[in-house]
Design goal:
Elements lengths: L1 H21 L3 E5 L5 E5 L9 H24 L1 H12 L3 H10 L3 H14 L1
Antiparallel strand pairs: 1-2
Helix pairs in contact: 2-3, 2-5, 3-4
């Protein structure tokens, strides 16, 4: 009698865990015997530092865009376009501050400028 009660408790616990996993989605298949088999979908694992990596990647991409734009347009034209942004709306002024030429951007643009021309 004790064995059946323990087996029942194990099966009930297993069923509860399966239902908990199914809250994130499930898929159904028809088995060879014609029964429907419901299995929980695997959850995608997102690494702990994924948000930080994405933020760093966006910052590097923005910096690369800024360098390429400066190298392609030239320093005079680029400065004129940034000056136009400084006279615009609040959003444009924030963009002008972000796109302002700094020494690192100028050095990288000087290096890649001959490659683009």
């Amino acid at each position: 009698m004790v064995e059946t009660k323990e087996n029942f408790a194990k099966r009930l616990g297993k069923l509860g865990r399966k239902h908990e996993r199914m809250t994130h989605g499930y898929s159904t298949k028809v088995g060879k015997d014609g029964l429907l088999i419901v299995t929980p979908r695997r959850r995608r694992f997102v690494p702990a530092g994924a948000g930080l990596k994405l933020l760093v990647l966006a910052a590097v991409g923005f910096f690369g865009f800024k360098c390429l734009a400066l190298a392609a347009a030239g320093p005079v034209t680029y400065a004129e376009r940034v000056a136009k942004l400084e006279n615009g709306s609040i959003i444009e002024q924030i963009g002008a501050k972000a796109l302002a030429v700094d020494p690192v951007t100028a050095a990288v643009a000087d290096r890649i400028g001959p490659i683009l021309r």
